[in-house]
Amino acid sequence: MNKQCSCQNKKNVATLSSALGITISLLSLIIWLLLYPQLSNIASMVVYHWLGAVPGSRSADSVHFFIYDSIKIMMLLSLVIFIVGIVRSFIDPEKVRRFLADRAPLTSNMFSASFGIITPFCSCSAIPVFVGFMTAGVPLGATFSFLVSSPMINEVALILLYGLLGWKIALLYLATGWTIAVVSGFILGKLKLEKHVEGWVYEEQRASCCQEMLTLNWGMRIQEAWQSVKDIVGKVWVFMLIGIAIGGAIHGYVPQTLMAHILGHATWWSVPLAILIGVPLYSNAAGVIPVVEALLSKGAALGSVLAFMMSVVALSLPEMLILRRVLKPKLLAIFVTIVTLGILLIGFLFNALLM
Known about the structure:
2 domains
């Protein structure tokens, strides 16, 4: 009898917790919807009324850009992470691994690249999941398609680009990044380079970063989604603010003619230069997109800017140093070369199309 009462009490607490989580989430969404359309007015009030900045001045434009984009990106980021957190709670990554291992090469590349868009699961980075794919028997080419698409294109960057630059550029970003991931992974798979993966990878047990999927109720799904918001925003907000600050400085102080000359359509070297500038930088999609917005507003060519963004998030030096622990130098060099060529191709193509 006591056990039955205890069990019933636990069920009642779980039900109450679920209802509370749903209520808080709905109230948060209502506040979000009411506040978001007023962000420009809020930024203007802070800059021109509270701070007393002169409208039209460079400093006022930079500060307005920083305040407006900081709030806007933080709100978009939180909403998207929460929604994706709910979606991820319905997906079992172990089943995805088994699914990829049984597919034809090109099909496996396509699914892996698409899967990379909605990762990482848990709090894992792309590289531990990549190792998990290898030890689970997923073909090397498919794992590389995932490894390219996971940092290069993700749901956060996609929604932020939509909010900042419109749906055409967002879809362009999605299509180009996905194509690079599929093609580069397919080529690497054909080269049969498994022997150039570090030996310890094959000796590892299946990656354990993603725990076995449990039966979750809506309260647990919402709780996990809020935890994802807390974890991810907690990790990226510094880079995001740095990126917005750089974007604000470009927006307010860098002459439009200068950016058009350096990263414009007419200069053949603008795409390689954009990649060279991006590689040493360390950021994530949330941090680099405000810089992208500012560069485009100053007349930089879209292909060059896309090349810069993709190099920052897919070819950064910190990521290469971590990846070196998994790949031997030859395979790492081939990976970097193929991804670089893909980014160059996309940059030149869109600069030519949009002249």
